[in-house]
Amino acid sequence: MQRPLGAQISHMLKARGVDVIFGIPGVHNQELYRGIEEAGITHVLARHEQGAGFMADGYARATGRPGVADVITGPGLTNAMTPLGQAYSDSVPVLVIASCLDETAATRGQLHQMRDQAAAARTVCDWSEMAQSAEAAYATIDHAFSEFARQRPRPKAMSIPIAQLEARTDPAPPPITADPAPIRTADLAPLRERLMAAENPLFIFGGGVRDADAARAIVAATHAASFTTYAGRGLIAPEAPLHFGSLLGRPGSADIIASADLIIAVGTELSEGDLWRSDLGHDGTLVRVDIDPEVLSDRHRADIQYLYYADAFLRDLLALDPERKASGWDAEDVAGVRARWRAEIEAERPGILRVADALRACLPEGTMIYSDMTQFAYAAKEVWDMDRPGHWHHPTGFGTLGYALPAAIGGAVAREGLPTLAIAGDYGFQYTLQELGTAVELGLPLPIFLWDNGKLKEIEDSMVAAQIPPNAVVARNPDFVALARAFGAYGAAPATLAEMQETVRNAFTADAPTLIYVTPDIG
Predict the structure, then answer these.
(1) Residues in a beta bridge with 3
(2) Structure-derived torsion over alpha carbons of residues 68, 69, 73, 79, reported in degrees to the nearest 10
(3) Mean per-residue pLDDT for 94-100?
């Protein structure tokens, strides 16, 4: 049956597994809303398109399925470009669908007019296309979902002219089967021999690895030491004796890596945000394993490169039975290094780790965490071992402020009944605090841990280190607890760590979000 294209797109998305769309309706994109309820899709109303994009990102990270956001022509899309950039940096499958003007060449001064809307979005995502017919719209959506399944997941954007959204058209074709093709490009037997012969083998696991059982099995079988990136935390059990944790960013990690004669980096870019230095620091043989050819040929100049799915690589390597009795690594030495690095972090950011330890101790099993760019998260991510992967999400690459709250809303929507926590700083929280309205509207039992050190402390510290007199690093903050209550959320300012823990526990069973205001002075 013919319907307006906007309605047909809603049914098409439902047929491809989309059950939630985040967005804001407007006159230009209202046709995208015509078929949402009829198709059986839930729509979550954000308070800003940036929030909608981050919600789609948080949903995608929680589920592994694409997050979808609908936005309006012009400023709706530009507002969503920050989340698109974040999703690109962190390899998150997000699809933003925007309306656009029917023509811009002959007419000026139109509402929401941009010179080239599709080109603008192209600067921050994998690709951006304008679909000027129903057939093009259907093909573009299937193109996106096929790539989400078969390639490194990265965000896509599409724009559809208003007249096309309104025009009646035939339904979309049936979904295309998009099972991942098995990327296995080499025989791993020679690598097994290298691994068996190495004195000090070392694995580095990134967010591209999902199979924690395989990661844990390979380091146990080979007695290899291991690091994870921030995105890979939880792949190795916290109690693993030869695990250096997610501490690649410590300057001393270069010395550890230099002492390894074989380094196998699996599913990681080894980016600036992973290392905080220009090079890995290796002297031994470096092996890179990734599905992105660009990663394999980057500045680290890997000696051996495998274009391979990370989980398949680990399972295939295990199938070759790389069992060995020992290596040159010593568990006591590893524990000593980790203790020394923890002391460094405590000295750099005094008072944070005791609060992080208390927060961690009161969380329910399986809590999924979304954090913002804040010193509390920077310190906690280094020492807070996760017992499972994919349960702490941080805007690592693009490094945007305002991520935690809306992304946690998307995660909480995706994981109904399961615990979700947001961690934000006082300044970054104000970028997207209006999304408290969305969380209240949805009745989410979402604890929002707000760390207020009264200033842009990371920037102040950087200015001081650079011998620049600190300037513009202190802003007047609102009464955050009163603000939360004004939105209809709960708010609390616990005076002690024990009180904080009790407040956090209660927040997971509340009928609305709870803002938990904490300062470095907490007792």
Answers:
(1) 169
(2) -120
(3) 97
Torsion on CA atoms 418, 386, 325, 264, rounded to nearest 10: 110
User: Which of 38, 44, 75 lies closest to 57 in space, CA to CA?
Assistant: 44
| CATH classification number, 189-335, choose in 3.40.1170.60, 3.40.50.1220, 3.40.350.10, 3.40.50.300 | 3.40.50.1220
Between vectors from CA 151 to CA 146 and to CA 154, what angle results, nearest 5°? Answer: 90
Question: Edge-to-edge, what's the strand order for the sheet holding 67-71?
Answer: 42-45, 20-23, 67-71, 94-100, 156-161, 127-130
**How many residues belong to the chain?**
523
- pLDDT above 70 (res 385): yes
d(CA 277, CA 299): 12
CA dihedral 72, 78, 80, 83 (to 10 degrees): 170
Looking at residue 1, what is its pLDDT? Answer: 87
H or E element: which one contains 464? helix 457-465
Q: What is the pTM of this model?
A: 0.96
Q: Which of 218, 224, 219, 226 is nearest to 317 (CA)?
A: 218
pLDDT, tens only, 152-201? 999 999 999 999 999 999 999 999 776 666 677 778 999 999 999 999 99
Which pLDDT does position 333 carry in this prediction? 97
Residue with tokens 């947001």: 422
**Considering only CA atoms, which of 2, 128, 51 is closest in space to residue 437?**
51
Q: At residue 39, what is the residue type? A: A
Kindly report, residue by residue over 424-435, the tens digit of the pLDDT: 999 999 999 999
Q: Kindly tell me if the per-residue pLDDT of 87 is higher than 70.
A: yes
Say what the pLDDT of residue 340 is. 97
Distances (CA, A) of 170 to 6, 12, 14: 11, 11, 16
The percentage of the chain sitting over the pLDDT mark of 70, rounded to a whole number, equals: 99
Q: What confidence score (pLDDT) does residue 373 get?
A: 96
Q: Which residue has the tokens 């780790």?
A: 353
Q: Which CATH architecture has domain 3-169?
A: 3-Layer(aba) Sandwich (3.40)
Query: What is the pairing mode between strands 420-425 and 447-451?
Result: parallel
What would the two tokens of residue 373 be? 């760019």
Give the start-to-end residue ranges of the domains of the chain.
Answer: 3-169, 189-335, 349-518
Pairing label, strands 168-169, 3-4: antiparallel
